[in-house]
């Protein structure tokens, strides 16, 4: 190959970069970023082909953390899979639990008491806060901000993790939801703690935005970088903040209105450019909306049981059938698809991981950008390899 | 204490501050030790003493600075920083040194062994060379050169060559990319760095460091030192110099050659053990040397900031100013994200170089109008400030492009 020619069109969108590739300019440089690269958020690998510093081809390689999650689910009882779902997206065990519980409850036709629904909303929104705050920290770390935003973000994350620990006994592997309710009840002290964090979180966000959002370098690094079109986002099945950053109004909390989300007043922020800055800002704005939901849900938490008294724990065998339960996880639509054949184990157990689906357009966003951009684009996709590889 | 109206450097040198025992102490020590030796050897002993003093003192400053940097970054980031080794972590540099010395020195099999070995040595050598001409205090210039400024930047520019050497010799793709970046950065930022202080050479009329410091002697209105930073064009030049110095010493937000989130550690990827420590040392030496240069060019060198503070020895003032600049560098590191390589070069060529060139004209205007007094003096200040701010705003608008905070709609 020589001269200026379209090379390596992306399989999903056909996008390509015209690389200059002739004897004078020399060969393209192929770099393997990962699986032990500091910015690939785990054991992810990008085979990058570079023309100078411009990416002309990017091949994501993953599977280094494959743990046979779905097959394990088929060989384990329904309840036995619950702790495994913690390990999917290990930042957001509460929402993973909820999505799985929702799927099983659909399958078994199991109702959930009101207090448990409220607790689920509270915990899911706290999870959204901690996921987005981590993303904001990691993204800024990837742009080279030397740890300061990350440390600010982690300070807040720790508070929420402490809250989770006091409720469920574990900081990250909460294993909290059950089919037909929750595992343990929240004490008034716990609720007071959650209220304090909710009250103070807005101040932290102000401080964080003051620190970094308006920063000239931050804007120059992220605006116009890794833009995604709404058409490609929809056809690739992108969900979550990444989809909403392209301007598509799709939030399962509004679309499905699962749980008791229809009772709360909150808005869905939408971006116009679909670039890295939008993806970052949408998350910041979503955190502000999450605070609003928490401010409404915490005082309104009804009294009552947290577990449906008729719920069957032992010998749980849903009748034959299939169900797909999905919720709006912090990273996008997390769903569980279950087929029951009437036995104690699911016949088929399938996870729809938002990180993996969102990762499929990585090459399309990275083509024509530089290697430094690839790192922050990957950071803005918000992947957790535990969920991508399963 | 000298009077408020005396502006002559000669008078100042004869003042009480210049004669105090502490002020003369370093010279007294050197002369005493050198005096022991026979006369033909005295110059050699004197030079050796200077070299030993520089390496020892700046080695110590380097060790302290690693701790200060980690502590300060820690405080910026809501954490205590190193506090386990010795009282308040004070022995941390020693532990780091032992660790670096005892680590295995790994050289990739396909690396160019000679260049791989030479790169850290060359980098350190070049950065120590730059110390030779910096006036650390009154009469404390290791090497009095007429073209000291040129010498300084020649030696400083060579250090980027060593980074390129390291990147090339490692035979690692990340290192190679880092080497490319280092060269691009060198070529881009050498220019604004040099252009930024051309006005000073123009006005001082000398390339000698001592001459430049002498040109900044005396006081305005009796208490404002006549440092170049206190003129509009001098301040602009200082800012340009500082930005270019950050880039030249590979400090955040211009630490692209060793961008740890993109290129692992760039040219340092294949270095371990003491070679890595040497790189680290050279980077800090480069930062110290450029800060020393900034002090000499813009901040009056070793001169006291206020007339009644002149009893404090000159080298203490140099040290204090050095510390302030270094802490400023660390503060920058704790706050800013990193630029991209195209943005880095754009900043240099489309912003700093034109600004520095315009500043040349501004300084010429300042020099030509030095005779203006009374109301004309105000006109002179206003015109100069306009000549500094105008291009800054115009060029800055072009640099920012379409980047600005956005507003978001809600569904």
Task: Describe this protein's structure.
The complex is a heterodimer of chains A (390) and B (411). Chain A has 390 residues and is of the alpha+beta class. Chain A has two domains: 11-61; 69-389, Cytochrome-c3 Hydrogenase, chain B (Orthogonal Bundle). In chain A, 45% of the residues lie in helices and 15% in strands. Chain A is built from 15 helices and eleven strands. Chain A has a three-stranded antiparallel beta sheet. A three-stranded antiparallel beta sheet of chain A has the order 9-10-11. A two-stranded antiparallel ribbon of chain A has the order 1-2. In chain A, strand 10 and strand 11 form a beta hairpin. Chain A is globular. The relative contact order of chain A is 0.19. Chain B contains 14 helices and three strands. A two-stranded antiparallel ribbon of chain B has the order 1-2. Helices cover 65% and strands 1% of the residues of chain B. The N and C termini of chain B lie far apart (72 Å). Chain B is mainly α and 411 residues long. In chain B, strand 1 and strand 2 form a beta hairpin. Chain B has one domain.
Outline:
The complex is a heterodimer of chains A (390) and B (411). Chain A is an alpha+beta fold.
Task: Summarize this structure as a short list of keywords or feature phrases.
heterodimer, A: 390 residues, Cytochrome-c3 Hydrogenase, chain B, 2 domains, three-stranded antiparallel β-sheet, 15 helices, 11 strands, B: 411 residues, mainly alpha, two-stranded antiparallel ribbon, globular, disordered N terminus
Return the domain count of chain B: 1
Give the fraction of residues assigned to helices of chain B.
55-70%
Number of strands of chain B: 3
Which percent range fits the helix content of chain A?
40-55%
